[in-house]
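Retro notes, item 3 of 5
We never archived the inputs for the zinc ion complex last cycle. Fixing that now. Sequence and ligand:
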Amino acid sequence: MTAEATFVCSRAGCDEIATSSVEWRNPRIHDESRVKVWLACDAHREYLRDYLASRDFPVTVRDGASMENAR
Ligand SMILES: [Zn+2]
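Structure as it came back at the time:
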């Protein structure tokens, strides 16, 4: 995976270019060191963040699509 790689939005049915990374964790099944990353286009950045936040998951949205923090 290179810096030039093109990422697509993680939202089901969306194939827009991702411009943000939504990093999150489910505290009930993931320990503190685990980070999941969804990628989001401009239209779904807020949608995905709100979806996770509504489930009380810790969520951080970063500019730029990257999977490098996923673990
Ligand atoms: Zn999208």
